[in-house]
Amino acid sequence: MEEKLILTEEWDKTFPKSDKVNHRKVTFHNRYGITLAADLYEPKNQDGKLAAIAVCGPFGAVKEQAAGLYAQTMAERGFLTIAFDPSFTGESGGMPRYMASPDINTEDFQAAVDFLSVQDNVDPEKIGIIGICGWGGMALNTAALDTRIKATVASTMYDMTRVNAKGYFDGEDSADARYEKKKAMNAQRIADYKSGSYALGGGVADPVPEDAPFFVKDYYDYYKTERGYHPRSLNSNGGWNVIGCMSFMNQPILKYTNEIRSAVLIIHGEKAHSCYFSRDAYADMVNDNPYTENKELMIIPDAVHTDLYDKTDMIPFDKMEDFFRKAME
């Protein structure tokens, strides 16, 4: 039995509602029994079975932010889409709250494919996924596991296992640095156990220190302003639990991406601090992979990380539509 969720029926997105699509809330469950909440966007005046796309991300965001914008826009272009909240976050179920897991979050994408595959108006042979930021890495990880997926887009992606284990720009890639991180988190586990609750790590810095790196200011400009703030977004508020991402340090994803046979499009901003994740992920994906003709890395000139969250003049939706249609022929 699915967990009963309390879903907001009012339009509370960070983007305007389109008059070209029908919208409704849906729920589905993953193999761990967690019920996930999603917004379903369906193009108006479309008959027959549609190609479908599941969208998630960014890491620490909710479906009312970038994922919903991507989903609604792709629905305007003729796809049936869902934007979902991952386990333990947003309107989705799962306890305790604000935890992340390489396994469970990959499973969340697979559960979305389960759901789409059984819809009466979806062609189960034409299902794709889009992952944004940290869920870009999860999308690639899912594509390496789920043979039902015909096409995957990873936009402004993070490899969350890499950044947790090695730090930004691999600046903490040493056994000693990892040991100190693990030591601190294990101490936090004891403190949490004693208190009976989980301490939050804090969302995006507010206020932003004057000497903060540009990418910190970039995140502030999205998550902490009217542009992208949402009351259920972890990044907009208290963040993940301090130990919420602990397992990312010891469980690398993207191990078998060079065995992906289906189509993959990786998109990143040229000036994004995170661009190295996509460049390296693409290189690893095509290395010794006999299926490279349907793989592509697209770099957007002058774009920074959060430009691909919501700036519709920079997000290459035309390219994405063409990519999905060709991959799902």
TrEMBL record:
One MF annotation (Gene Ontology) recorded for this entry: hydrolase activity
Keyword terms: Hydrolase
InterPro entries (alphabetical): AB_hydrolase_fold, Polyketide_trans_af380, Xaa-Pro-like_dom
Location of the Xaa-Pro dipeptidyl-peptidase-like domain: 33-158
SUPFAM superfamilies: alpha/beta-Hydrolases (SSF53474)
PANTHER family from the UniProt entry: SUPERFAMILY HYDROLASE, PUTATIVE (AFU_ORTHOLOGUE AFUA_2G16580)-RELATED (PTHR47751:SF1)
Name this polypeptide is given: Alpha/beta hydrolase
